[in-house]
Design brief:
single chain; about 375 residues; alpha+beta; 4-stranded mixed sheet; 3-stranded antiparallel sheet; 18 helices; 7 strands
Length: about 375
């Protein structure tokens, strides 16, 4: 089958103990059945240690965390299983993380999650537009999909990539166009009109069409941003300090927005880095509309995520008076861990785009104006 992936995908390497964070801390570590069977077969003192720390439930096996740490993460933040038994002995989640995969029949898409700072370094260090490659892999195909529908969504996503990487347009304009694009595509998707999806994609490729779309002239309202932060603070946190951070941003919102304009002027790479952030979200989620019919939710999530990450950026700048690539990697990682790696949080967001007035397309457009339009 074919694998479609970012060009930097093959360059990923875990930086192990050099990581300022650790994917073996604060995360539940599931053990796939094949690896669990192997662990139960290991003899000697280390085998006994392995078996003592495995917890078996009706949902499968996992390691029992100790003080929020994997019991095999040693004092140097290195994996004792790796050191004693070798890389091939690691369970699937430890081998794969932060890689993710999605199957569309005989087409597999693979990327790197933003929750890992080594992945973030690769993603945000790219100076040119994001590039993708197709390679042949030896793997069985996934479940069959509607090939005509997937082809239409794939073409539509390519247009979305082109749109958000059009550096002749301001970043704010690109985000507003992406939101409008998602709305247009949603109607065609609901009709099952794959030809119309391709026609909409073609229209959004036309330079003259892009020039016609403008921001609303009304003064942007900050109240929806406050309500959005409140909504996010009620989602399931991974880091117990996450809701407190969102509350602090709510209280400092006027100061953050005022200083945000200064950050945009001082930190030159911000548009390029947010462009890569946008492409990363689009690549991971856009074509999943094939399964749930919600293409607007995928584009709205992408735009809103860029807004929330930018507010995290603003909090850092207000607090420290500076901003750097390391800050970009950190805030993207912070957001990704809290939102992308909790299915309940993602489901709540997909639903909210259709049910919450403060997350309407008009209100998200206001957030774009507040955060990405230079005054």
């Amino acid at each position: 089958m074919k694998q479609y992936r970012p060009s930097y995908y093959k360059d990923f390497r875990c930086i192990a103990s050099a990581c300022s964070d650790n994917c073996c801390i604060g995360w539940e570590i599931d053990i796939d059945p094949q690896t669990a069977a192997f662990y139960h077969s290991v003899g000697g003192d280390f085998g006994l240690r392995l078996q003592q720390h495995i917890c078996s439930t009706e949902d499968g096996d996992c390691f029992i965390l100790q003080n929020e740490r994997c019991p095999f993460l040693n004092g140097q933040n290195l994996c004792d299983i790796f050191l004693h038994l070798g890389e091939k002995s690691l369970c699937e989640i430890c081998t794969e993380h932060p890689r993710y995969h999605e199957w569309f029949g005989d087409w597999k898409e693979s990327g790197l999650g933003l929750c890992c700072e080594a992945a973030g370094q690769l993603i945000f260090s790219q100076t040119g537009p994001a590039a993708f490659e197709t390679v042949e892999i030896e793997e069985e195909a996934g479940d069959k999909v509607d090939e005509e529908a997937f082809s239409a969504l794939f073409i539509a996503r390519e247009t979305a990539f082109s749109l958000v990487q059009n550096r002749q347009l301001s970043f704010g304009r690109r985000m507003s166009l992406l939101l409008c694009y998602g709305r247009e595509l949603q109607y065609a998707l609901e009709q099952g009109d794959w030809c119309q999806i391709k026609s909409i994609a073609s229209a959004f490729e036309e330079p003259d069409f892009l020039k016609q779309t403008t921001f609303p002239q009304s003064f942007p309202d900050r109240s929806a941003m406050d309500k959005t932060l409140s909504f996010f603070s009620l989602l399931e946190p991974i880091d117990p300090q996450w809701p407190d951070l969102l509350l602090r941003i709510r209280k400092q919102l006027p100061e953050i927005l005022d200083s945000h304009q200064k950050r945009l002027r001082q930190y030159g790479p911000w548009e390029r880095e947010l462009e890569h952030l946008t492409v990363t979200f689009l690549f991971r989620y856009f074509c999943k509309a094939l399964f749930d019919g919600d293409i607007y939710g995928k584009t709205a999530f992408t735009v809103l995520s860029c807004c929330l990450v930018s507010l995290l950026d603003g909090e850092v700048f207000l607090r420290t008076g500076s901003y750097s690539l390391e800050d970009r990697i950190f805030t993207a990682k912070q957001y990704s861990k809290e939102i992308e790696y909790c299915t309940d949080n993602l489901d709540a967001l997909w639903e909210a785009f259709w049910s919450k007035d403060f997350l309407s397309s008009a209100q998200i457009m206001n957030m774009i104006r507040l955060l990405f339009v230079r005054f």
